[in-house]
Write a structure and sequence with these properties.
By secondary structure, the chain is mostly beta strands. The chain contains 1 helix and 10 strands, in the order αββββββββββ. Strands 1, 3, 6, 7 and 8 form a 5-stranded mixed sheet that branches. The radius of gyration is 16 Å and the shape is globular.
Length: 192
């Protein structure tokens, strides 16, 4: 098996329900960790790899490393979206995540503001990923916590939609990511 495509090890069950806010945030971190280094969803400039490793019950969207980006992707009909406006993660934490008073974020869906929620995982969860992944850098499980401003967006009706995410840490880091989504079948993608 090629060096960069080795599969991650199996992960232990989460210490919280997978569809709870904490469970979704933890699963988002696991989703990013599952990406090969060349398919990192946070570094994706176009959205062409957005469908990689997606679960079947929700569709994860990613922020950026501080760039202003526009991504285009197809989302299966009936899937809720889960997106961070700003988040942090810590490997081998000594305790629960610390509050970040300067953190800020906003999310708009088709131009309508959707206030993000502060979500923090109170106890560590295990993350194993692809080799050299952006979360742990390794395939062996690593305990992690995450916190930030996130939003669970109910499934959008079929057709074109826009999700615009901005956020930052209050200390100079900012992101601005716009998703042009097509919900439903990819048979008539307008940007191809």
């Amino acid at each position: 098996m090629p060096f960069l495509t080795r599969r991650p090890a199996e992960v232990a069950p989460l210490p919280f329900h997978p569809s709870s806010p904490e469970g979704l945030a933890a699963r988002w971190v696991q989703w990013v960790a599952a990406a090969r280094v060349d398919l990192n969803p946070i570094a994706d400039e176009t959205g062409e790899n957005a469908a990689a490793n997606q679960p079947t019950d929700v569709f994860f969207l990613a922020g950026s490393y501080g760039e202003r980006l526009t991504r285009r992707c197809v989302v299966p009909a009936g899937r809720d979206l889960f997106v961070p406006a700003f988040c942090t993660f810590e490997k081998k934490p000594a305790g629960p995540p610390e509050p970040m008073p300067g953190a800020h974020g906003s999310i708009a869906v088709d131009g309508v503001p959707a206030e993000p929620d502060w979500i923090a995982t109170p106890v560590p969860f295990l993350v194993s990923g692809a080799r050299l992944n952006p979360m742990t850098g390794r395939t062996k499980p690593v305990p992690m916590t995450t916190s930030g401003l996130w939003k669970l967006v109910p499934a959008l009706p079929p057709g074109p939609h826009e999700v615009h995410v901005t956020g930052g840490d209050g200390h100079g880091f900012v992101l601005d990511v716009r998703y042009e989504l097509l919900v439903g079948q990819p048979s008539s993608v307008p940007w191809v």
